[in-house]
Specification:
Shape: globular
Number of helices: 1
Order of helices and strands: HEEEEEEEEEEE
Largest sheet: 11 strands, mixed, barrel
Number of strands: 11
Radius of gyration: 18 Å
CATH architecture: Beta Barrel
CATH topology: Porin
Helix content: under 10%
Distance between the termini: 30 Å
Length: 220
């Protein structure tokens, strides 16, 4: 376990060194999925994003949607809505400007498991109505790996390594929007609940930024 923790914090340090031109923030995340029946599920999530560890709000993200399983447990198609409140600092001041965004999104998730390793692909299209801005849309591709550490599968009472990379591509000019790389140490408390502590490096066209993340995932 000491070797695993050393590897985890080493990955965090590598990503932290990439985020050179900005301060490190913190995201507190809850993501839930409620099973309605064998076909349908209700997705819901809250993300509280800070410029610092906590208390200096950068974004509040609320997202919900309904999904349908194309095959049991492995392939899910979902239609959702999100509201995002951004608190952007005005250049050269300590004042903030609040900007609201309404977002509709469609996504397809497919999952595979190979012993200790589980893989998830997510393809998402977002239609965005940002306050005082033109209509925008973008495509996101998300690839995630969860690797069980102390058990042969991701069952209850399992520590695991969580890794993901997500790229964002705009449908307008400046096609590249951002890329996110993430590493975390996670613990599956039960079949319905898992928690993660990790670090994400978010790379934009001309700058980068790091965020610690505290995340919980519930399926019930």
């Amino acid at each position: 376990m000491k070797k695993l923790l050393t590897l985890f914090f080493g990955l965090c340090l590598c990503f932290s060194l990439q985020a050179q031109d900005s301060d490190t923030g913190n995201w507190i995340i809850y993501i839930g999925s409620k099973k309605i029946n064998d076909k349908w599920n209700w997705h819901h999530e809250v993300q509280y994003r800070n410029y610092n560890f906590i208390g200096d709000l950068e974004q509040l993200l609320l997202r919900t949607g309904f999904g349908v399983n194309l095959t049991p447990g492995n392939n899910n198609l979902l239609l959702g809505y999100g509201y995002i409140l951004s608190e952007n600092y005005i250049a050269g001041t300590d004042d903030k400007l609040s900007i609201g965004e309404h977002r509709i999104f469609q996504q397809f998730i497919t999952k595979q498991s190979f012993g200790r390793v589980s893989i998830q692909h997510r393809y998402r299209i977002e239609e965005r109505w940002v306050e005082d801005s033109d209509f925008k849309w973008r495509f996101r591709y998300f690839l995630a790996l969860n690797i069980a550490l102390n058990n042969k599968e991701l069952v209850a009472d399992t520590w695991y390594l969580s890794l993901y990379d997500e790229i964002f591509l705009n449908g307008q000019n400046a096609v590249f929007d951002r890329n996110r790389m993430y590493a975390a140490l996670g613990y599956r408390v039960s079949p319905q609940l898992k928690v993660e502590l990790g670090f994400m490096s978010q790379v934009f066209e001309k700058r980068s930024r790091g965020q610690f993340q505290i995340a919980s995932f519930a399926n019930f």
